[in-house]
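OP here, attaching both records as promised.
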Amino acid sequence: MAKLKRVKAEQREQLKKLGLENFETWEECAERQSRMVRRFKGHQRRPVPNWKRCDPEDCAASQCPDGCWFASRRYRYLMILEAYRLLSTHSGDLSFVSVAHPRWERSQGSLCQANVDAARQWLYRRFTKLGGNVIAVGGFEPSLNVELDGRSYWAGHVHLVVAGATKDAIKRILSIEKRYRATPYARPVDVRDVGNLCRQLGYSLKRFAERRIAYIDEQGRQNRRPLPLNSTEQREFDAWLLSLPVGARTILIGCRLHGSRLHVVKASDTFDDTHELRKGKRSF
């Protein structure tokens, strides 16, 4: 127990020094894990294999899926530190990028059909146009969009921190063809400066999903109000995560995870990793 408290304090202090002060605690993970288990009571799917053994000190990390709060927290902690080390020492520009391609949308009830590999490969093909000095780290996440007419669907998003390319160059290569845009005011690609690198890495690799309710603001523009998922929606989201290995939603361009270290590689080698992951040869 003393060792566990020391590790907990060291992790909190380490992330705080890098600018991330509100990283999820083990106590929060325990409460969220308990709520997830309660949501699945009475349903056929068993939430987490050996979930009663899952805690900060004894988690079946090699077997636990991305839906296990403890396993995903351990992975996110590692990735944030490693990505920060790699990106903070890169000589190129840093940008925070969000992409929401309409082809990544899935109807409510069909989130299990989300294809992370397809999003990863689309990004790979686009980023190869920038040359070999670009590094990007982030992840794929869905949100439940509710439109003005009441229609709801899962919208796939990718959030990335990108080093080694200008904002204009990133916007150019990630431009989404107009034929895919259902509305003229849609902004499927957003590129901004990086303010707090550690915080934006934490956001890019987060495990949460939310409802995003469309509304018209005072200027007559459509915006979205974020709200928590209801129990049924959260259960669908959790079930999807429970079907994925830890790290399966991560997007890596120009780098690769070997054990517990991120290394710069050729972009083609990163692309090979998607095939290895799909075949089950990689574990995160």
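Record two, same layout:
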Amino acid sequence: MTELSEWDSFYLIVGGAAGALIGLQFVVMTLIASRPQRAGIEVGDAFATPTIVHFGVAFLMAAILRAPWKSVITVAVFLGLVGLAGIAYSAIVTRRMSTQTTYKPVFEDWLFHSILPLSGYAILAVSALAFSSYERRALFGVGGATLLLLFVGIHNAWDTVTYNVFVDNHGASRPESSDNPEEENAAEQNPDAREAEQK
């Protein structure tokens, strides 16, 4: 348990960052939700919700590893459960990404939404297995997995914001404005005139 106590500052920083980013993600999603064009819920399940989950797991890791445990075995059991649950959740997210039809994922999406999170949770599960025999190495594995999930969440949150602000916003079809505002207003008031002009 002496090794574990030396990680207090690390998890204080990581846990604080994860908690702040969870709150910020809620603010961002609220702002995006106020826009008129919104994607289906299947896109949120595949791309937005996992980001909150990764931040939440990083926050949970900080809480678990800073608790005053009496036994290393208890810590290993909790880490193993979180790792296995994360692996299962990553498989579900991968399936959701492949079945949703609103957005076609590119390689970067598969890397940051499927491959890297799955790797982080797998490292967590393996570190839990090695905890009793190789405590120091296992702690570095847990720390690396936690940081990986935190940075994956940061990337995915930023990716979501930039897509909704720059790509989706400018990609929305909008009629080209006329050079003459009076003509545009007249065309809007008289649809027959607009059809005749297009012919």
